[in-house]
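Give me the fold.
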Amino acid sequence: MKIGAHISAAGGVANAPLNAQLFGCECYQFFSHSPKGGKAEPLSVNEIKEFKERNKKYNFKNFYIHAPYYINLASAKNNIYYGSISVLREELERGSMLGVKYLMTHLGSAKELGRKDALKKVVQGIEKILTGYNGKTKFLIEMSAGAGEIIGDTFEEIYSIIHNTKPIIQKKIGVCFDTAHAFESGYDLRTATSVKKVLNNFDKTIGLKKLKLIHINDSKTALGARVDRHEHLGLGKIGLDGFQALVNEPRLKNIDFILETPTDKGVRKDIKLLKQLRKQV
């Protein structure tokens, strides 16, 4: 288990490992280009080289890309739908050039089509993204908080999406579990007992072999609130007992934890806190 955070890559991807070591990260996550939109600038040979050299210098072996926030694989608008497919495939290719382990993405909203048709479209979109792709960077579905009609807020729905793709595609899909999103969707993570129950449920429904990465965030909103608001560890509604249990959970010992808590000085404190909790294992 390595501990890290979402790190700024402003000014170029080669700045991500530099910033990550300043925060005390052992692994890290970043945007490969602006998450708000616009065409991604091609990665230059020198930029890729510098990125890899800095990772080697600071001993980073695991690093991850988060897809832009505007992705919607359930959109009724073709420009958004096919644009999302194109961006995600491009992000996988960029990740492969950089040696990134995983790309995680939110799936989008069912608001325009209704749940049934939206889920079909998501499955078709994932198949389009991954058909013919054999790069190093693996594709992860990130669990959502369930706000509005956002897709992927239950284990059952994520399982359905994965297993409605072709078998050859299923093998290329993993899951990123977000503690705040799960809690906000109704999965209690406040005690050791509840953490074990949730992981047992995940294993029974999706299978823990599909769990590849954890976003470790406290929640400003209550259990089942379906409102996505991250908080620093121990200051939200999940509380430190839950995070102690997660770090102590033997089934998670080889899965990296990435913080996405508010981007202020508290992130460094969160990293130190997680490392302390891990020492108590």
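The chain has a mean pLDDT of 95.
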